[in-house]
Amino acid sequence: MQIFILIPGCLHSIAMGFMVAFPAVLNPAILSPNSTDITATSAQASWIASTNGISGIFGFLIFSHIFQSFGRKMTGIGLNVILIVGWLTLSLANSITVLVFARAIQGLSIGGVFISSITICEYASPRRRGYFTTIKIISVGVGSLLCHSFAIFCTWRQIAAFCIIPTALAVIFILFWPESPSFLAMKGRFEDCEKAFTWLNGNSVESKRELKYLIKAQMRRHELIRKTEKISIVECFIKTLKNKEMQKACIISALLTLCIDSCGRYFLIAYITQILVEITGSKSIAIYCSIVSDLLLIFGLSISCIVIRKFKRRKLLFSLGTLTIAIMFIISIVAVLKSKYDILCQVPWLFPFVVLLHTFVAHIGLVPVSFAITAEVYPLEYKGICSCISGIVFTIFYALTLKLTPVMIEFIGVSGTYAVYALLVMFCLAILYFILPETKDKTLQEIEDEIRGIDRSDADKNLLPEKAISVDT
């Protein structure tokens, strides 16, 4: 039954892939002096591309609260409805102002990048959690590939109208979901939690054990809340911000998010055509390479579904992350040799090759593992505020990446741009090496206990008796 949860997550991600790649379709159309539709300056086009990252901050503030207070179903429906409104407005836009407004509406749903991943992690079993998250990321690549491919024979308005379909289907699927067992347990609805958990995971001994730990941990939390003096909302918020487990989870998430943004996850999807035109001087080569890049992205993520099940998260992150950094520096060196010394004129295919190799390697390890870990490390009690804080960090990085990448290419060239991003990835991995826990094949409760520094045997001793729990031991 868990596949029923994955399908709408993938449909939402396909629409998100269209959204991220859409500037690659929209910008050439509105920047063309021969356009009979809306025309824009390069500055206006960059604002259209990056506006959804800015509005995403407000989206996280809204949806993180809904996520923690009203549940995962309502949040999933809201995220997709917002996307539908954004795509509809975009397809009917008649001015630069409306284009900016439409992208801003879409940006409110950027919270789906984190929130839908966290949701899938809550619904999925530990063994499926990693590759379910990766399949969702593959869906973003599928959306990007479709967007770049449709650009060959469709207008940007037609593409925007098409994107309403997957988001509408996602809403229909979510209507038939049960609520997340983790959310129900957090709210003290233990009988409903047991029913939902059994519907999703069956009655195996392993599933019963996971359910027992989940319910017991939340019973203990509710018991502590009852014994604690009531404090104001402001005091509760300050106390939450001071919580070390919450801080550690947010720091890990922020560093992984910066890794994802800096390794080319988004700026390559949006600007790969511009990057290749800058170096090769051929628009046709750049367009076909962008399609090949999307195919390699999907292929790399498909391989990662297997790799992420076989190897530890830390091993994949640091080994393939280091390889990604090395390739980014190679791209920087090749770009310098090509632009300043024209040494590589006899091998014009070399630069596109290393750019495509970078896309492939990054999406085997660094990108999917970072997404998987980010969705796993939040303590249940603080998932709302953690997703909000991490989401704001994500939208800031995302908006800055889309806004600054073309500016960096213009002023420091492709070589300088790749060098800067490679140094950022190196910085993040160096810190993560010392603070990142291993999460593979562990339940979310086990990961939470590890972040809190709680030994599982000690936790068992301190948990409440099994009263009110119908799960067999």
Write the topology of this structure.
Blueprint: H1 3-31, H2 42-69, H3 72-91, H4 96-107, H5 112-123, H6 126-150, H7 156-162, H8 164-174, H9 181-186, H10 190-201, H11 205-227, H12 233-241, H13 244-262, H14 267-280, H15 283-310, H16 313-341, H17 350-362, H18 366-376, H19 383-435, H20 444-452, H21 456-462
Helix pairs in contact: 1-2, 1-5, 1-6, 1-8, 1-14, 2-3, 2-4, 2-19, 3-4, 3-5, 3-7, 3-8, 5-6, 5-18, 6-15, 6-18, 10-11, 13-18, 13-19, 14-15, 14-19, 15-17, 16-17, 16-18, 16-19
Structure description:
80% of the residues lie in helices and 0% in strands. With 473 residues, it is mainly α. Helix 14 packs across helix 19 and helix 15 runs parallel beside helix 17. The longest helix is centred in the C-terminal third of the chain and has 53 residues, at 383-435. It is globular and about 70 Å long.
Question: Could you provide a short overview of the structure?
Answer:
The chain contains 21 helices and no strands. With 473 residues, it is mainly α.
